[in-house]
Amino acid sequence: MGQNQVKIRGVSVVRPEYEYTTPEIVAYLEKTWLKKMPPEVRRMALRIIEGAEIDRRAAPFPIETVFSEMTFKEKNDLYVGAAIKLAEQALTPSVGHHRDPRGRD
Predict the structure, then answer these.
(1) Which H helix or E strand runs over 39?
(2) Model-level pTM greater than 0.85?
(3) Contact at 8 Å (CB) between 9 and 91?
């Protein structure tokens, strides 16, 4: 391996800062986004959210940011930045510089 090679020895578990239950998400959406939707869209959205049978969802941002009216690019940029930070946190304790046993590190 060359001089700048890094070896991952393991990965630790890192969770995003925020966590919401499905009832918390539904309550928030009913006061905001779903309030503006036609009844058929509202029913379908609730069926999808509740039908997924996911008890808790983790997010790197507060619920107001997760469901804010941003462009796709703006929201995607936020998520990419958050994913990089979480990855760095997960990898930092486990990364070490690899030493070539032949003395060519």
Answers:
(1) helix 39-51
(2) no
(3) no
Summarize pLDDT for 81-93 with one digit per residue, the tens. 999 999 988 887 6
Distance spanning both ends of the chain, measured CA to CA: 7
Residue 54 CA to its chain's centroid (Å): 15
Residues 39, 42: Cα–Cα separation, whole Å:
5
The 3-state DSSP class for residue 8 equals strand
Tell me the two tokens of residue 18.
Answer: 């925020």
The pLDDT value recorded for residue 103 is 53
Q: Cα–Cα distance between 77 and 97 in angstroms, integer?
A: 30
